[in-house]
Amino acid sequence: MDKLAVQLNFLRVFEHSRLGLQRLRTVLCDSILNDQLAPNLKLPKTVRKADLYVRAYRLLAGLIPYAKQSFSKSDQDEIVGAFQLGLTKWTQTARPCTHALLLCMYELPLSMVKHLAGTLDRMGRIMSTTAIAVHILEFLVSLIKTPNLWANFVEADYQRVFAIALRESIHPHPRETANASQSHFSPVAQNALAQYVIFLAYHTITLWFSSIRLSDRRKFVPYILRNLALANGTSRPIDERIEVCVDMLMRFSFANAEPKPQKSLVTRVMFDDAPAGQVLTKTWLQGNALLTIRVLKSSCWAEISIRRPTGTTVFLSRLENKFRGEDIDVVSVASIFMTGIEAPASNIAEDIQATPLHRHGRVGSDSNITSAASNTETTGGSESLRRSRTNPSSGRPFIRSTLTDGATKSSETTDGPVSSDSNEVRLLPDNAATSRALSVMDLTPLMDHFNVGVVYVGPGQTTEVEILQNTGGSAAYNEFLAGLGKFVKLKGRKDIYAGGLNTDDDIDGSEAVLWNEGGGQVIFHCATLMPNYEHDPNCTAKKRHIGNDFVLIVWNESGRPFGFRTIPSQFNFINIIIEPVDARYSSGTEGSRRTPDNTYFRLMTQRREDMPEFGPVSEPKLVSAISIPALVRHLAITADVFSQLFQKQGDGTTLEEWVSNWRTRLRDIKRVREQSQPGHTVPSRQGSVANVVSPSQLPNTSSGAGPRGLYNGQSQMDQLDVVLDFTRNT
């Protein structure tokens, strides 16, 4: 069975054996679905029946590439149904069946749609261990990137997904931790895998929650928060990862706004270009948010910025009330255009329109601050704009009312899982320390960044220099790059993460491949897109980027196996190898008969010798040309995260966690809180920890005399749930 599974990777061998393939599929599916796999076979004592089923599932997985051309739709359904059954058949079959179902997700999508609800239900019933949890979570992360499969999900389906992710969301499995010495993994590998599972759990929650229809998201908030509270327990402070997750829920529950604001023309003209001393700035701290209000002294305009761990929100507000005895110059949008700066009116309206914020951004009916997009006046022209900037005496009542009302707005926008001390609205001093804190937060990216190397290995090439000198590849390779991400021009692009590539000129090439997804941005260092130089015959400039990448994608058309150390680097942990099953398919000589749907490539991974097995293609898989870009991109991102975690563990004596940019911003805010407390020693950025509420510090629940408050009569877990649930008053 093992040898036949390997032979199935050679498509040309079985290209004209359709009848034999159909018989093999029938025997395997009937035996598995009816639990009749070799019923009369006497097995040696060293071989268990579960081992026989594992080999049968691997053999069945080898038939997936033949399914589109050789099997009917009902046959394909049976294949997926057999894998679904194997999730809970034996402990040993859960992993190969999960990998096979992930492949079916790309290759047999219609059959996966039919069996998806049952698949998620069985995944939720598998006894959770790190060894299987990592593969199930990778399946969920990959599933969210194929929206055609879950387009008809209902509330129960989403709840199944969240249930699986929440189960793994906080700490490694205690049973495995207790038996760590008996594990076949090294301490470094155990720590890396445990942290990788936690990363995948929170990543799954973020991706799936932000993909739900906006009007339905808040339905799931209490369920997620309740389970996060249960996972955290009642004996420890709230985990930073939970705080970041709650902040993410707050940001995405009521809006789909991008995490980073784009400065409008109004902001640039009125505030950034204002004369010195004409802009008054104040910053408040409350909970896990910094609220900054900038007021143009001589006008009715104010900019309100809310910096949170998961994003920054900016509102441009304008006072509509007229003050008694005050001659206020009203700056209108029309006056901006009269300065001679051109900008589409529709863009300006979009940029300055105030978004309803419900719980965390609602403007009360008695507020003096209203939307800049409403009732704007068109009189005054550029002269009005000039007077409004140069008259420091006008508008003072507006400044006072705005800054006072800002504290109220802050309390509405920063509800979160914090203690009563940290939930206090605190005005920060207007000094260099506050300015530095705001600058640090603004410089911290709002997305996690990943670098992945990509090289093309041409026919007969074996050395590093030969490979790096390639400035192009085959047609199949070029199609792969086009599907891997978006080609972007590098010169002058300061708004993207370039991964060290030069954006001032074209030293590292004029283009790069970029991909954005769910809080992350990936830059692909493609050697074929970088120029060669006569003064650099060894391609040191290219190696400078690719050699620092943890993950390397290798498109191998050399006709020979690619050695892991072909392009040596101390940072190279994982290689993702793509090879054409038949050289003719890659070169395009049979292009008239071959399409992306029936052209297949062999996909496999190589890892450093001290790393554990990783990902769904630790064993070679055949993947169609149409599916391979998305699958490889998924593998590259998760492999990069796992490699970083593996490197961080050092000798394995301490457990190093994944610290996302969102978590870094959370720590920045906490450090500002500690710094603003008189006499408090300010910790370093790496070591700051919040004074968040511990469940044990919640109010006493004993039934004593006195008025019945919010927490009276509730368990500690119920109280923690109330602290976390920001939707309770919305």
Q: What Rg do the Cα atoms give? A: 29 Å
Kindly report the average pLDDT value: 78
CATH superfamily of the domain at 448-648: Rap/Ran-GAP
* CATH top-level class of the domain at 448-648: Alpha Beta
- Name the shape in a single word: globular
Helix percent reads 40-55%
Give the strand tally.
14
Count of alpha and pi helical runs: 26
Biased composition (Polar residues): 365-382, 401-422, 675-704
Domain Rap-GAP: 438-680
Protein name: Rap-GAP domain-containing protein
GO biological process, one term: regulation of small GTPase mediated signal transduction
Describe it for me?
Among the domains are: 127 residues; 179 residues, no CATH class; 201 residues, Rossmann fold (3-Layer(aba) Sandwich). Helices cover 41% and strands 12% of the residues. It contains 26 helices and 14 strands. An eight-stranded mixed sheet has the order 8-9-10-7-11-12-13-14. Helix 5 runs parallel beside helix 7. The protein is globular and about 95 Å long. It starts with a helix and ends in a 6-residue tail after the last helix. InterPro entries: Rap/Ran-GAP_sf, Rap/Ran_GAP_dom, Tuberin-type_domain, Tuberin/Ral-act_asu. One of its GO terms (molecular function) is GTPase activator activity. One of its GO terms (cellular component) is TSC1-TSC2 complex. One of its GO terms (biological process) is negative regulation of TOR signaling.
